[in-house]
Design goal:
By secondary structure, the chain is of the alpha/beta class. Helices cover about 40% and strands about 20% of the residues. Strands 1, 2, 3, 4, 5, 6 and 7 form a seven-stranded mixed β-sheet that branches. Strands 9-10-11-8-14 form a five-stranded parallel β-sheet, sandwiched between helices. Strands 23-29-28-24-30 form a five-stranded mixed beta barrel, surrounded by four helices. A hairpin with a 2-residue loop joins strand 21 and strand 22.
């Protein structure tokens, strides 16, 4: 006999036994919820019971269930009142007595499949503002995981890996305890200090943790002052002191700061706080210091080439004069403290504070983070899997969390059994697929290094290209750069190596170098009214990088885009004779029709573009084409549309004709300079239909079956999505697709020809544009 669960209120043992299986219903949920009956179960004209389920901590964290949930248990054979009426009555009753009842979910519970049927009907015919979560109760108590599994499939689980902002909760703070302890001790002792590391390595999270600790323990006030806010760095040094004073002492808001009184008013504000709080510290933390340092400040804020010295003179003087006042300087590296002069002027804070480098996580830190966050999500990693993740990303916490977030989504999309158990094979399979997607975050992390410290970024690229001799020579010549790169945790060992394979792939994929000269990429906004003669579009990074390497000396500039738009867009110029023609290169970084469709719509609404060429690699139909051939599509056959009936799948394809002008121009293009790797390898330029859809073919039948219904030369994944977008924009007649055959889309599929075909398709696409521009 099952004992009455301790977490059950409002019902006695006799009432538990009065309704068949009600005891099992209670026991099932009482493992994860406190069960509260506000009304006695009904067992006259209809047999049902209603209660509130109050989630315990584990369930609350996993599924973000913060409020009590109404649960209805019913026996379908004894229902004389409609279930929808019961739910309306019970919800109103319980809400009147528990105002925090969850407005999103109602749990519907019964025997066998009745709950699923009832939930489906309620979703259609009852209040569809609720999600009705079905639970089946049997004659035996369900396992612990069954409730969570039902919640996983019906409610969804929070992705605790997918956060990129600074961490504001101690429960999610990992790997920095020792550094945090040291920084806290220095702040309590009134010592100035510098905290430095790569972007998104955890600097701001450390500051926020210090801030929480000071507030909770009544140790004083830590003011975090971020200098990446344009509204702040537009100010002169007097305005910055005024803003700081107002954050420390609200009475300072009334003061008007100018060059004659700013120093005095600022120190007075700090002294008033110290006088009112004699046992407390006041700390100002300057985050993103590079934005005002004379050697790294942007041209649009050039007043900081002078104002930096006034501001830091005042900060230094105040810390010396007021014992309970100190500062923390945060940035990418410690150049602001290590360099004695800027433009011949002494640096006021040179060598004036202790330096703490925020390095990569250790393996133990990574394991602790992934195991703990995984517990909240129902995903576990074995030791080889953890090792593989640590090795690939070198311990950078943001890259690791983003990789695991994408892996978690993939496991859900591919219908793996939950809870997920991840081994090394799953990790290694996903690492390669995830690299292009993670380049977005790598740009976010590493391009600030390139922006502020380009020489250090160049050294990383040199090391990535395996030019060890050149790198070692630079280490000897610029030891401070080497010290910074090792301080970031990006370079380790003797002889030096990059700490993560991902970084090497990113650096090599991002830019094809010639003699180690940097690619001319700029993040200044472009003139969006400019007419661009061609747009070259690709899905994969390898395809895009092939085009970038060919146009590296063609005034490449990266176009700023919003953080939620995962594209990479460059402007460039195509040289024909002595004339330069503006063009665009853009990439989604991932395969498939939907991403390319969104990119085309973005480009179409944002830029004035003449012709659009989609280039890259494809599968060719064995017997029709050869590896390395260029296929110029004369039409795109979208095989993905159809209807499924009891007799099978009925294909309803769409066919898009390509621009006759562009296709004819490609046929007329007889010869041009191939990449060196192709000089002695004859390749043919062919035209024909290309099948397009969201499938990678690697079997012996699928592509042949498509060819049987519509003759095609090959298949790829993006052209149909691009065609739909251009059709909606009324621009289909300006569209061409040029793909190089890298495999046959059958069981022999491999990547042996991938890079060469990326290069040859880019060469042909750009040469076609030059041919057309020259003809015009």
């Amino acid at each position: 006999m099952i004992d009455r669960p301790k977490a059950v209120t409002g019902i006695d043992i006799g009432e538990l036994d009065a309704i068949p299986y009600l005891r099992q219903f209670v026991a099932t949920f009482a493992r994860d919820f406190d069960v509260d009956f506000r009304k006695r179960p009904k067992h006259n004209e209809s047999i049902y019971a209603a209660c509130l389920l109050r989630p315990r901590r584990e369930v609350e964290i996993m599924f973000e269930l913060e409020h009590p949930i109404l649960a209805i248990y019913f026996l379908d054979s004894y229902m004389n009142i409609s279930l929808s009426d019961i739910i309306s009555t019970e919800y109103d009753f319980h809400k009147s007595r528990a105002e925090d009842i969850d407005p999103r979910y109602i749990f519907v519970c019964s025997l066998d499949g009745n709950a699923q049927d009832a939930a489906a009907m309620l979703s259609i015919f009852h209040d569809n503002s609720f999600t009705y979560v079905p639970f089946s109760i049997g004659s035996s108590v369900k396992s612990l995981i069954s409730v969570k599994e039902a919640l996983f499939h019906n409610v969804g689980i929070k992705d605790y890996f997918n956060f990129s902002d600074p961490i504001d909760a101690d429960s999610l703070f990992f790997g920095r305890q020792r550094l945090l302890t040291e920084a806290a001790a220095a702040a309590r002792g009134g010592q100035n200090q510098g905290i430095f590391g790569l972007r998104r390595i955890g600097k701001t999270s450390i500051l926020m943790s210090l801030q929480r600790s000071f507030r909770q323990r009544n140790l004083g006030k830590i003011v975090i002052f971020s200098l990446d806010d344009p509204s702040r760095i537009r100010e002169r040094w007097t305005g910055i002191l005024s803003q700081l004073a107002a954050l420390i002492d609200t009475n300072s808001i009334r003061d008007k700061y100018d060059v004659t009184n700013a120093s005095r008013l600022f120190r007075s504000a700090i002294q008033r706080y110290v006088k009112d709080n004699p046992k407390q510290q006041i700390v100002i933390a300057f985050d993103e210091i590079e934005h005002i340092v004379p050697t790294t400040v942007k041209a649009s804020y050039s007043h900081w080439k002078e104002d930096y010295f006034h501001l830091m003179d005042n900060i230094r003087a105040a810390t010396r004069e007021i014992p309970n006042f100190s500062v923390i300087i945060c940035g990418i590296n410690a150049k602001s403290l290590e360099q004695s002069h800027f433009d011949g002027i002494p640096n006021p804070i040179f060598s004036s504070m202790s330096i703490r480098n925020v390095q990569m996580f250790s393996y133990e830190d990574v394991a602790q983070m992934l195991v703990r966050l995984g517990l909240f999500m129902g995903i576990s990693f074995d030791e080889p899997a953890l090792r593989a993740i640590y090795t690939e990303y070198g311990g950078h916490p943001l890259l690791i969390r983003q990789f695991c977030s994408k892996l978690f989504k993939r496991l859900q999309d591919e219908k793996f059994a939950w809870p997920f158990k991840v081994g090394r094979s799953e990790v290694m399979t996903h690492i390669r697929d995830a690299r292009p997607e993670l380049h977005y975050w790598a740009n976010y992390i590493f391009l600030t290094l390139k922006e502020f410290y380009p020489d250090e970024f160049e050294m990383l690229k040199i090391l990535a290209s395996d030019d060890l001799e050149f790198y070692v020579a630079l280490e000897d010549d610029k030891p401070e750069y080497s010290s910074h790169l090792r301080g970031y945790g990006l370079v380790t060992g003797r002889p030096p190596t990059l700490s993560m394979p991902f970084l090497k792939h990113y650096l090599l994929a991002g830019e094809r170098r010639a003699d180690h000269q940097p690619l001319e990429v700029d993040d200044e906004p472009e003139d969006l009214d400019q007419q661009y003669r061609f747009a070259f579009i690709a899905a994969l990074d390898d395809e895009t990088n092939a085009a970038l390497s060919l146009l590296r000396r063609s005034r490449l500039k990266q176009v700023p885009i919003a953080p939620d738009q995962p594209y990479v867009i460059y402007t460039c110029e195509i040289l024909v004779g002595k004339r330069r023609h503006p063009a665009i290169i853009a990439s989604t970084g991932k395969m498939g029709p939907s991403s390319i469709q969104n990119l085309i719509m973005h480009l179409g609404h944002r830029f004035k573009i003449g012709n659009i060429i989609l280039f890259g690699i494809c599968a060719g139909l064995r017997g029709k084409v050869d590896l390395g051939d260029i296929i110029v599509a004369d039409q795109i056959y979208d095989y993905s549309q159809g209807k499924i009936t009891n007799t099978g799948r009925e294909t309803r394809p769409s066919v898009f004709p390509m621009s006759p002008y562009l296709v004819n121009a490609a046929r007329q293009l007889k010869s041009f300079k191939w990449p060196k790797s192709y000089q002695n390898a004859p390749r043919k330029i062919r035209s024909g239909s290309l099948a397009s859809g969201p499938v990678v073919f690697a079997d012996d039948n699928s592509l042949m079956a498509i060819n049987a219904s519509w003759p095609v030369a090959g298949a790829e994944m993006e052209a149909a999505g691009a065609a739909y977008a251009l059709h909606n924009l009324g621009r289909l007649n300006d569209f061409a697709v040029i793909k190089a055959v890298s495999d046959f889309g059958d069981a022999s599929k491999d990547d042996a020809h991938r890079m060469q075909c990326c290069e040859s398709s880019a060469v042909f696409a750009i040469q076609l544009a030059r041919f057309i521009l020259g003809a015009r």
